[in-house]
Write a structure and sequence with these properties.
- The protein has about 120 residues and is mostly helical.
- The protein has a domain of about 35 residues.
- It is about 65% helix and about 0% strand.
- It has 3 helices and no strands.
- The N and C termini lie far apart (about 100 Å).
Length: about 120
């Protein structure tokens, strides 16, 4: 290899190292982050008084209780509908057998009704 190729290779490697170093050091600039003692502007709104906090808390609790009651009512209505549907489908279709047993005074044995 001649001397001119070595110089070119040395210059290119030096530029690569310098470019990488500049890139890594550019992340240390202060332009992205505010200074430590920079304080935000004062608030224009006032904070809630203890009475206002209590009132807002009570409103939230009341709304939560109301929603919970509504959800339980809907759930109970759904359960009642399912139970009524199950009871209607479980009713014996042949009602003559239990009626005749009751008319004769005999006690029907368990499971004597018609099976679906």
């Amino acid at each position: 290899m001649n001397g001119r190729g070595r110089v070119t290779r040395l210059v290119l490697s030096t530029l690569a190292v310098a470019g990488a170093s500049a890139f890594l050091l550019s992340g240390c600039s202060d332009a992205i982050f505010p200074a430590v003692h920079d304080m935000p502007a004062q608030r224009t709104e006032t904070t809630l008084t203890p009475d206002e906090v209590k009132q807002v808390t009570n409103n939230l609790v009341n709304q939560r209780d109301q929603l919970s009651t509504e959800a339980q009512t809907v759930e109970q209505q759904g359960t009642a509908t399912v139970a009524a549907d199950n009871a209607a489908s479980a009713a014996p279709t042949n009602s003559a057998a239990p009626a005749s047993a009751a008319a004769s005074g005999a006690t029907p044995s368990a499971g004597a009704g018609a099976k679906p």
